[in-house]
């Protein structure tokens, strides 16, 4: 087909060019399910902190596929046998691994699609596509579900050092300008190998692995868990909760038809059927932000106030606290609020609340990062000579915060 | 104020950090009129070609202000006197120079806000802000309108080598990954000076100036006038035209209230009053794309077909032609189309049409780029020793194209 | 072999990693003839203008080989058949194409090895290596000499858009910090193809080709022909001439034994035998700069003065003139000099002299750059639609200058 | 002066442009003492591992001065008072802080200038320059010696987060291509302040500080202490030792006059007089490498063998060992060597030896890095919330190795 031939290459400021390996992958990229990812921001509302962070899940998925191509090339060069069918399956699996994300996924999962996780929805999409593409995605799905016998393949897609993490760290760092999050994916991939069917990294790259973990840790605290991003996302969660609450009380809020559907129905894993999937496939950032834009003029004080905060970037105050915030402090803030605003005690929870942030740079509970030593033996990262550094990164760090309207600042 | 202090710096992957010079500028950035630019993409639909091109007019405006700071610093270092008041005015003028852009500006200006240009709307916004800020924008407005006596100041904001062009070339190149569009703004600014009240560039930067013009030329042909961007924008224009046509016939199309307003009313320069400005200030990409998402399910065949093209990135075929496309060719294509689709002859114009693209890298009609020679005399660029190159770039290049549905491809 | 395994990858700040394709190439890189290139600066004395420009011919040769690997990969992907033997020959030919360069090659070729050009010496080295490697370089030599029937292979090594130019522009730009010289080699290579046995570029990369030519033109005027680099090189040339003159008069100047050899003998193409090659293979920047360091304390006033200029970066004044400098002006400057310095009229020519610089960005006399159009026909660059730009770049530009001691500045 | 005006700006691929703040600094840069740094490589023989690592101490010193300008700008912006005189003194002190380095400093300090450290020699140079510049360097010298009352000024020049470390990490990473060593100096400087006369970093940059420490740690193990760099440097040390040994026995080795001087004399701190300084000021990489090139043809087997290793990059084998290498192993290797080579038992130590490498990323013994908290109190880095990570980095890591000729490899 003529038009097919023309778009075999994507420009990418990070890798230069991303080329599409074959026509099946091309057709998947062209599919409306996948094109929808062009309209879903990778970093949600983080652009309120980092104005460049408007890149999409579409671009990230392509980036993952690109570095998967590099990884496959490296592994084959080192003698790991990967058949053409497996190769294509790896590209498909990584390309579609995040296709189940909705708009502002984290906020949605805590408000209107509470009972089903995005990985599960990704799988639903893959199954639907597999039907349409006559079974050509079966191996990819098998790998994705962890049911394929060659387990390093899953590790390439989902582990503590997978293509997903590499691309998102690199990409989020690039677009946001948080330079410290950049990682040397070239070197990490160059140093990959397979031993005993596990993905391993040659030991001369051990400092690059450490640096990768540090970069991830830094991106968490400086970007993903940046307090302004966090409060923006929490406000968004509360907006969606409030809208659902009002809708279910019978209030009609202007919004797109697919969003209306999710406000009206309670979707759980069992009830997420083919029709739901079709609705879900129509949802993207435009539905959510479009609604919020309308709702800033809603009659409901809670809803309109919260929406204006997002639109005008005039957020709640978020304050990091030494330990868990005290209940008395919350009560006091709420009391003040009730004097200022015409709201009920329960509604005050939309404006005054506490929470915590938690991150582990390297988890000893998950599949470990494995290091291939010069004598060809394998050690898990936390047992290598650099263990003290890794040990320090294996501790969960928890931080507490308190949110309240700026009018209460005194 | 506490919260003010905190956001004095923006991360920018291009310049590292952008700092806000003073609290007036800070307050302007915080204003909803300006925050709206966060929701307007700088490159419109170009992301359909370059998936990274999702940066916004907000970010571009900040970037312009940043390099204006560098330019002011350089000029002062070289002894050009610039008062504090003038300095602030320059920052405000460049910050707000594009505030009058609507979503997908080019398409809108050819469909629903036909009789008023974005510069004029920028001025309306500035006037409105000047009222709110008690006259503090007066000098900025004077400079912007070309009414201030020191004309180099306008040239910094709007000329063939201004801060606007420098930032957008650098930024569009960065985010899209079209590496050749990158320019050395550092060097260009470093080499600026003022002579006889004109902005001039020292002659040792003459090759950088040429390279700047080449980069601009390349960005036009490779990005702004990329045939896929062009056809996408034309489809968008036709969508908005069709929607207005239908609305005015009484059809009710679901869309946001501000967009509804512009579909219903014919806005000309005279009728663009304060109320219109308030509506306009609510419009952004979410209104337009949100509408297009809904309209893909509209009853009208023309409207829904065009909308689906954008949403699924399944555009009309665009074919560059040697000379102007022949009328017969168009007629023939239309005839074929009428056989396939249930549309009228007039409606066929929505799907089959021709057009042309035109660009001049350097215009001899506009204010020239002036070169400061070692003997302190000034020459216009086209008269320097490099004139043959510049002459070649001063010729307008015109290219012709033809658009039609892919189903007609044979 | 153990040691072979270890160094299969070079770090390169430009391309990330450079990998060595096979053990023959590895052994060539390890050879003392090639290791010598580690001690020969790519940009000669340009570091006196651009302090970062200390990269070597060794690094450039590796870089060329790397992009040759990319080009071969692209061409094979597009269906151009290239056998394993041809592939290796291409790598060897590009790796060794500059091996005949001496230290500060240009200055040497105008002083002490006047009658033989570096390409000829490269060939001598290749022949010598071919003997040592039992004929394994024969095909590479055939290609290099233009005697192989597939002419696009020579064009990859030596033409107006070859791997050599791409790497040196990119590398010289990178290390010197002349950002405008950077080119998009990724894109240019991605767009290469072969048609009628000629190397061609797809027409959608035509602006990248233009930009490449512009970058080269800019690098000439801003770096290679920068007036300070030029005067430094001319002083170096005169130092070596003077040293040869004195040596042949019987003066013994302290210097390394290989340099001594070239000062004592007049080497022409015929007399450049195997023994001469061995001496030449010992020469590098250390011999020349080491000698200049000693000679700043030489008795001869001319020699010591010129050497001090280089060592302390206190060069002759170089003045660009409108047309050719007038003889009277030179005579006058010389007359002044003779009053100040204890030198003869003839020796004054070492300090006061004129010259010219010449550059053509794109030569119509050489093998043209060929453009592959969408209809699969081929056009030479100067006949494409962008011809006015290319025409402007095809004109030779000549600039004149005059050099004299700063003490004469008045 | 005319020529002075012209070179007020240096191109730098890292920072864009480096400008010279005033004419005193300009004159210092022009001084032969400082120009000599153009001929001293920053990373010694590391180019044998990283072919791009040919940047010089000259460039590094300029880079340090550049970021010192940024730091001063930031601190003044935050209200720290710094007088013009202090500002200039800071630029001079950082510019000259490394002027006492000889060629391949580390190797020299372990062979021919054993009893005086490079900081001491820097001071000698500064004192000599202060004489020539009529006392204008007095304040800079005071700061450099730690005798000025404002101690944060010394911390900017020499501490665990000074301009020196920032520039060398950035520069060494850039030129070598070890991407992981890059640090965000912009952000670190942006976050600097002064509290209680100590240099402090605002706590929101704590992850950048950590990342800086990690980058430094990585650069040590991956570049400065890379085993190939280490063995090359040890061979160089042994070459110089052997040459001194032979010279003092009366053997005449061809080399430059200044190097001859240091081979003949034993220089200690007391005997390092003005005449010695003048000799030292003539020494650079060209003397050392020039000598090694000659000495590869020396009669002495030990000397010529070691020299050939460097010239042809055919080094001793270096093997990292689990613990300290056993004496028996060394004895055995020596015994084998004595059978192959015509050398004495003592001479065998030149070829077979052991050693260790040691590094601490962050030393608790030195002046700590201080963190400024939001409540304006100051904490030392190791006591902040991120302490576990820092603690891990405060442990000294020691690695052991063994070197021997490859012919013994079996």
UniProtKB/TrEMBL annotation, chains A, B, C, D:
One biological process term in Gene Ontology: dGTP catabolic process
Pfam families per the UniProt record, alphabetical: HD (PF01966), HD_assoc_2 (PF19276)
Top-level taxonomic group: Bacteria
UniProt xrefs under InterPro entries: dGTPase-like (IPR050135), HD/PDEase_dom (IPR003607), HD_assoc_2 (IPR045509), HD_domain (IPR006674)
Domain HD: 57-169
GO molecular function, one term: dGTPase activity
SMART domains referenced in this protein's UniProt entry, alphabetically: HDc
PANTHER family: DEOXYNUCLEOSIDE TRIPHOSPHATE TRIPHOSPHOHYDROLASE (PTHR11373), DEOXYNUCLEOSIDE TRIPHOSPHATE TRIPHOSPHOHYDROLASE SAMHD1 (PTHR11373:SF4)
Name recorded for this polypeptide: HD domain-containing protein
């Amino acid at each position: 087909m003529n038009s097919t031939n023309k778009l075999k290459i994507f420009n990418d400021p990070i890798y230069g060019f991303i080329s599409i390996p074959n026509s099946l992958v091309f057709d998947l990229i062209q599919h409306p399910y996948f094109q929808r990812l062009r309209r879903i921001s990778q970093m949600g509302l983080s652009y309120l902190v980092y104005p460049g962070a408007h890149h999409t899940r579409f671009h990230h998925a392509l980036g993952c596929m690109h570095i998967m191509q590099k990884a496959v090339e490296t592994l084959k060069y080192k003698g790991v046998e990967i058949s053409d069918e497996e190769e294509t399956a790896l590209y498909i699996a990584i390309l579609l691994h995040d296709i189940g994300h909705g708009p502002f996924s984290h906020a949605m999962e805590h408000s209107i699609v509470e009972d089903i996780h995005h990985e599960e929805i990704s799988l639903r999409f893959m199954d639907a596509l597999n039907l349409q593409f006559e079974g050509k995605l079966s191996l990819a799905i098998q790998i994705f579900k962890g049911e394929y016998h060659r387990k390093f393949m899953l590790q390439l897609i989902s582990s503590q050092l997978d293509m997903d993490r590499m691309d998102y760290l690199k990409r989020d760092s690039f677009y946001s300008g948080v330079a410290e999050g950049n990682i040397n994916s070239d070197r990490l991939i160059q140093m990959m190998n397979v031993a005993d069917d596990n993905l391993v990294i040659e030991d001369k790259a051990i400092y690059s692995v450490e640096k990768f973990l540090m970069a991830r840790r830094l991106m968490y605290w400086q970007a993903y868990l940046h307090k302004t991003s966090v409060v923006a996302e929490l406000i968004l969660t509360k907006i969606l909760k409030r809208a659902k609450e009002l809708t279910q009380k019978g209030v009609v809020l202007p919004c797109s038809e697919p969003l209306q559907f999710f406000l009206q129905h309670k979707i759980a894993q069992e009830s997420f059927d083919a029709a739901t999937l079709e609705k879900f496939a129509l949802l993207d950032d435009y539905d959510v932000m479009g609604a919020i834009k309308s709702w800033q003029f809603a009659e409901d004080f809670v809803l309109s106030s919260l929406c204006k905060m997002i639109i005008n970037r005039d957020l709640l105050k978020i304050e990091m606290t030494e330990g868990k915030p005290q209940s008395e402090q919350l009560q006091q803030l709420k009391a003040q609020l009730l004097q200022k605003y015409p709201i009920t005690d329960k509604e005050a929870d939309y404006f005054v609340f506490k929470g915590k942030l938690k991150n582990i740079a390297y988890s000893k509970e998950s599949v470990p990062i494995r290091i291939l030593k010069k004598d060809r033996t394998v050690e898990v990262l936390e047992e290598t000579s650099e263990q003290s550094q890794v040990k320090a990164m294996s501790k969960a760090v928890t931080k507490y915060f308190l949110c309240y309207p700026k009018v209460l600042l005194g």
